[in-house]
Design brief:
heterodimer; A: Ubiquitin-like (UB roll); 5-stranded mixed beta sheet; 2 helices; 5 strands; B: alpha+beta; Aldehyde Oxidoreductase, domain 3; 5-stranded antiparallel beta sheet; 4-stranded mixed beta sheet; 9 strands; about 40% strand; elongated
């Protein structure tokens, strides 16, 4: 069993309706499959994904204790 | 190298002066390049009353540190400063200041531009605007660096 934390930011947080949740999985999944496991709607195009605060590809597999964040394109500066 | 995320109005010139007076580089730097980003009262053809800047606390600092480290590897930087605002912001208030100190101008200009463009592309900040009508909207993407 692996337990991960999911976080959502900005417009995606508003769409999802929460900023954070904990998820326990029987096996590791890619971050894209983590999204599919939790959400009925497809991952919005252009969504950025970070694991433990580093950008990853959709094919990145999660490990126990990971913090997985989904968010829209960044608009700082 | 200094990175600051601040929740209240800041004076970019004070921040620059504060670093420069502490630099153990007297006589070593011949160039200081500065970029200041300030909130406009218009965007996409609409009047903007205010803005809220959200960020991913922790990842923001991590990404900015990485950008600074790459800039230091690629240019002859003696010191650099990033200050970025979060929270509720009003037009005319500074959003970001980047300052780079180097021996010669090319390194200062190029590294300052690099840091700013990388911040725009990779640092996890998000802007939500409040228009004059009180309607709110997320800024969907940053403009290109040529704009």
């Amino acid at each position: 069993m692996i337990t991960i934390t999911l976080r959502y930011f900005a417009s995606l947080r508003e769409q999802v309706g929460r900023s954070q949740e904990t998820l326990t999985l029987a096996n590791t999944l890619t971050v894209l499959d983590v999204w599919r496991h939790v959400h009925q709607v497809p991952l919005p195009e252009n969504t950025l994904i970070a694991v433990n605060m580093e950008y990853v590809a959709k094919s990145h597999s999660v490990c126990d204790g990971d913090e997985v964040a989904f968010f829209p394109p960044v608009t700082g500066g | 190298m200094t990175i600051k995320i601040v929740e209240t109005v800041f004076d970019p010139f004070f921040e620059i002066q504060n670093v420069q007076t502490q630099l153990a580089l007297n006589g070593k730097f011949g160039a200081t390049s500065i970029f200041i980003g300030t909130m406009r009262d218009f965007n996409e053809g609409d009047e903007v009353r205010a803005m809220t800047l959200e960020h991913y606390d922790g990842m923001t600092q991590k990404q900015l540190e990485k950008i600074m480290a790459i800039a230091k590897e690629n240019w002859g930087i003696l010191d650099a400063l990033i200050v970025h605002r979060v929270g509720d912001i009003l037009p005319n208030e500074p959003i970001v200041v980047i300052s780079v100190w180097s021996a010669h101008r090319a390194d200062a200009f190029d590294a300052c531009r690099y840091i700013m463009e990388e911040l725009k592309s990779n640092a996890p900040f998000w802007k939500r605007e409040t228009l004059i009508s009180n309607q709110t909207r997320w800024v969907l993407k940053n403009t290109g660096g040529k704009n």
